[in-house]
Amino acid sequence: MTARRRPRGEDQHRALRELARSYGIQLSFTDVEKVRRRPTRASLIAVLRAMGAPIESDRDVADALRARLSRVDREPALPVIVAWDGSFSPPTLPRALLRSGFAAELQLDDGTSVPADVGSDGTVSLRSADQRLPLGHHRLAVRSTELEGSAPVISAPRRCPEVHRPSWGTFLPLYAMRTRRDWGVGSFGDLAALLEWTRGLGGSRVGTLPLLAQFIGDPCEPGPYSPASRQFWNELFIDIEAVPEMRRSAEARELFRSEARSARVRLLRQEPLVDYRAAMAAKRPILEALARVFFQDASGERRRDFDRFTRMRPNLDDYARFRAYGERSKLPWPAWPARAREGRVETREIDAPAVGYHQYVQWIADGQLAAVSRSGEDEPGDGLYLDLPLGVNPASYDTWRQRNVFADGVSGGAPPDPFFPMGQAWGFPPLHPERLRDHEYAYVRACLGHLLRYAGVLRVDHMMGFHRLYWVPDGFPATEGVYVRYPAEELYAVLSLEAHGAGAAVVGEDLGTVPQAVRHAMARHGVLRSHVVQFEVRPDRTPTLRDAPAESLASLETHDLPTFPAYWECRDIADRRELGLLDADHASKERTKRDRIKRGLTSQLRAEGRLSKRGGPVAPTDAATTGTLKHLAASEARMVVVNLEDLWGETGSQNTPGTTTERPNWRRRAERTFEEFRSAPDVVGTLAEVDRLRRSQPVRRREDRA
Prior knowledge:
This protein is an alpha/beta fold. The protein contains 25 helices and 22 strands. Residues 1-7 have low confidence and may be disordered.
C-alpha cells in the first residue's frame, strides 16, 4: 500500500507557517469577541517581506525557508544574555553552540575583564569570589576550536524602582495650559509653576502629554504621539522670558516688545484652540535672535555648559542638520534626493544659522526642564510624570538616522475590537525585533535615557508592545494584520536598568484587551499597572468599581478617553454616534449600559460614604466626579493622578481616537487659567480631600505584602 502524497499547496502552506514562526510572527489570535483570526497569505507574505525575508510570492516560500534555516546553522548567533540582579539565569548559552575547550571572559562596561566558565549545560559562572555581576551593559566573549564571538550581557535589577508611599499628582497637557502670560500655548515655566503649586497642596507629581520634538511649520504635525524624534525636546515650550540671553540681545528684546508681537500673542491667548504654527511663528524669530547673540559671543560658564551639553548629546549636530535640511527643502525626508535620503547631508545644502538654532534651542529646552524636574530629596514617583510614545512620525529624525531598527512597509496598529471593528493602523513604522537585538537596544536605551533624565515617573505607552505588536502591511486593511513577537525579558531588563539609573518609577499602559502574561510580567518586573475607572466599571457586578490594586497608578480616565464629566453625561456616546462610529441601535445599548454603571457606582459611593445619602438614583456630575476621586484616593494604589479639567466639569476631549480633522485633537486649551484655578474652592477643596485620604493610607513595601 503506497502512502498518499501530500498536495503541493499543503506543503507550501506548511512552509509559510514555519517561515513565519521563525520570524516570531503569531499565526493566529483571538480577539475580544472570541473570534479566532488568521492573517491572509498575502498579508503574511507582506509582513515577512518587512521582516527581511527574501519573499515576493508563494513561489519564494520554500527558498526563503531554506535560506533562513541555513543561516541559523551556518552562523550560530550568541543570544542576548540577561543577568537578573547580577546573577546569570541558566541556561545561558544554547547547547548547540557548546564545544569542548570553551574559554570565556566577561568584558565589563568599565573596561575591565573577569574570567568566566561555561558549563556543559550552557550556564555561565564567574571565577571571582563575588559571583554577582555589576549592573550595566557588558559582553561575554567566548572562544573555542569552532567558534569565536561575543554576546551582549544586560545585568539589570529584576524590578524597577519601588514606590512605597501612597501619593497623588495632577495632570494637564502642557499645550493646553493657560496663564496670563502665555503665548497661546503653555511653557516649561508654566510647568514649573504647576508642579510647585501641586506640591504646595501635598501632591508629588505633575503629568502631561509627551514633550518631545515635533514638526511645527511646513509640514505641521503637532500630535504628541507622532514626534519628530523621541530623543529631543519640543522647543515650542521654551519660556522665552526666562532665557539668560534675553539680557544680552537688544534684537530679541525689541522683537519681544514690538506691538506686532504683542498683538499676535493677545489673539493667540484668546483662542480656545492652540494654533501651533502661529505660536511657533511668534517665538522663533526671538529664539533665532537669542541663538545669534549666544554664538557671536559665547564665553564663560554659559559656553562651558553648552559644550558639556553637546558632548553628552553626540547626535545633536546630526539632528540639527536634519531639521535644517528639512526646513530648507520643505519636504519630509522620504521625498528628499537619494543622497540626503540615505543620510548624507552636505554643509553647503543647509543654512548654518538654522543648524545653530536647533542646537541652541535643544540646550535651552533641556536646561529649563532640568530646572523643573525633581529635587535631590525626591523619591521614585515624584516630580514629572513623562510619557514614552509607542512610535514616531514616519518622517522623523529617528527613522531617517536609525532606519535599520525600523521595519519598512508596515504600520503599527491594533486588531478589530468593539470600538474599532475594522481595526486600526496608526501610521508609524514599528521597531524591528531582530534588528533591535543586533544593535543591542541602543536606540531604546537612548529614548529611555532622554526621558529619564528628568522623569520621576515614566509612562510606557502600549506596554503590550514589549511582548508583541500588531503589524498592518501597507495597502492592506487593518483587519489583515498580524502580531509580531518581541524579546520581552530583554526589553524589561533595558527598562529596569535605565529606570534604576535615574531613580524613577515606571507605569505601563495596559488598558483594553491585554493577555494575562503581560500583566504577570509587569508585576514580576515592578512596572505599575494603569487602573482607569472607565475601563474598570462593570454594569452587572457588585461592586460596580473594583478597588485599585496596590501596584498601580489610578485615574478617572486617560487622554484618549472622554473626561469623567463627559462620560457621566454620556456625551462620548453622542459624539461617536455623530461620527458614525455607532449606529442608533448600538448607541441605545451603550446608553442603557452606561445608565446601569452610573446607578451602580452611585450606590457604591453612597455605601462608602463618598456621596450624600440624599438624591436620586444617579448622582449629579460634580458629585460623582469628586466621589469617585475620593474612592481612588482611599485605595491601595501607589499613585493617583487627577485630571484638573475634571474638577471644573470639562466635557471636551483632548483626543478622540479614530478621528483626524473631524475633531480638534491635541489642540483644545484649558477653560480656566492657572491664575483662576489655583485658588478656586472647587479645585483646591477636592485636592485637599484627595491629599487627606492619600495620607491616611499606610506606607507599604513589597515585603510587607509577601
